[in-house]
Amino acid sequence: MNYIDIENIDLNLLRVFEALIEEGGASRAAIRLGLTQPAVSAALGRLRRVYSDPLFERTGRGLRPTVRANELAPLVEEALTQCRQALALTTVGNEIKGRTVTVGLSDDSEIALGQKILKKVDEHLPGLHIIFRQTHSGLAQDMLMRHQIDLAITAGGLSSHLVTSHRLGKGNYLCIADKNTSVPVTVADYAQRPHLLVSSGGFVGVVDEALNAVGYKRSVKVSTTHFAAVPFLLIETDLITTVPSHAARAMEKNTSLQIFPCPVSMPPYELEIGTRVGNRHDKVLHELKSIIVKICQTPGFLS
C-alpha cells in the first residue's frame, strides 16, 4: 500500500469530495460549501491527482461517481464524522452545529414518524439537519454499511455484528378507505371488495397470505409501490387498503379518509432501529435514536 503524507494534503478536499458525492454536482456542492463553482472544480482536479482516478464522470444530470469514488465514500464519511465529533468536544453544543443525519425508513414510517421526529429535534437538537431516505428491510443493513444512512428504522433485516439494533415495538395493521365507503365487517365481505395493494412488486402481499390461510382470496384492483400515494388513490373511490396501523392513523388525521379494523387476523411485525457499531459514542445519534424510541413506544402508536 502506498502511503501519502497528510501534511502535504489539504484535508478540506475531503469535505469537497463529501459534498460532490451527496449533491451530485459541482454547482450544488459549491452552494453547500459556500464556495464558487470554479473553486470546487479546482478542488476536484486536485482530488483526481491525489487518487489517480477521475472520481466523477459527467452525465446529463450532473456528476456520477466512479467505482473508486464509491469505494472511498464510506471511508471519507467516517473520517469526517470522527473529526467533527472530536472538534465538537471543544464547546458544549458544538456537536450539533452544521450536522446532518440521514434516517433510512420506509415511506409508511416516514408518514407516521416524520413530523413527530422533526418537532422533537427542534426541541432537543436545534440546528440538526435531517434527511429522510427511503429503505426497507432488504436494503437497510447494506445502506448502513455503505454509510448511505446513519440510522435505520425497519421491520427486520438488521443481523450483522457491525450493527447495533434496538426493538421499537410490535406493529399491526388497520384498513383505510374513503369516508363514504361502507365498512366491511366479515372476512367474506372484506375479500370481495376492490383492494388497493401497496407492494414493491406483484399483486400478492401479507393480506393475501392471511386470507389464503382462512380459505379466501381478494380482488386487487390496483397496486402501488408508495404509501404516499394511498390517500390520493382512495379518495372518492370504493377501494380499501390495509396498511401498518401507525401510517393509517396518520393518513386519517390529515385527510378525509376513515380507518377501521381488519376483518381478517393479520400477523404482527417487529419494528427496530439500528446504527453502526462504530457510532456508539456519537452523542447526537444517540439522542436522536432515543427520541425515535420514545415516539414509537408511546402507547397506541404502533398497535
**Helix proportion of residues, in percent?**
40-55%
Strand content: 15-25%
Shape: elongated
Number of strands: 12
Q: Per CATH, what is the topology of the largest domain?
A: D-Maltodextrin-Binding Protein, domain 2
| Straight-line distance between termini | 54 Å
CATH class of the largest domain: Alpha Beta
- CATH-level-4 superfamily name of the largest domain: Periplasmic binding protein-like II
List the uncertain runs.
none
Return the string of H and E elements.
HHHEEHEHEHEEEHEHEHEHEEH
Structural classification = alpha/beta
Strand order, biggest sheet?
A: 4-3-5-12-6
Structural description of this entry:
By secondary structure, the protein is α/β, with parallel strands linked by helices. It folds into three domains: 80 residues, Orthogonal Bundle (Arc Repressor Mutant, subunit A), CATH 1.10.10; 101 residues, 3-Layer(aba) Sandwich (D-Maltodextrin-Binding Protein, domain 2), CATH 3.40.190; 89 residues, D-Maltodextrin-Binding Protein, domain 2, CATH 3.40.190.10. It contains eleven helices and twelve strands. The longest helix is centred in the first third of the chain and has 22 residues. It is elongated, with a radius of gyration of 23 Å. Keywords: DNA-binding, Transcription, Transcription regulation. Belongs to the LysR transcriptional regulatory family. Pfam families: HTH_1 (PF00126), LysR_substrate (PF03466). GO terms for molecular function: DNA binding; DNA-binding transcription factor activity.
